Amino acid sequence: KWGFAAACRGADNTPMQVTGAAIIGAAMVSVIDCPDVRRNGGLLQLQIHDELQLRGPDENTGALGSLLVEHMEAAWPMKNLRATVGIGDNWMDAKAPAKAPVKVKN
Fold this sequence. Notes:
Elements: H1 2-33, H2 35-39, E1 43-48, E2 51-55, H3 61-73, H4 91-95
Antiparallel strand pairs: 1-2
């Protein structure tokens, strides 16, 4: 009984996991290949689950954030695929609610 239930959960979850991995993989390649990201000093530092972490100069955070949103949302031909940007010196700071809205051109 338990084995059958686990197999059913796996069968339900696998397509979503595979699609999510394909989307983040496409976004990662797109960001790495983007000359505008490199021109703004952006460097893809880390990918975890559905997140990409870039490192770049403080003065270019707005431009890099806009580029990241653009690449993440265009990574897969899917309607209503949305991305958000967090900015901070580390992952925890970037995940914290912003004290002021981050100005990202969309």
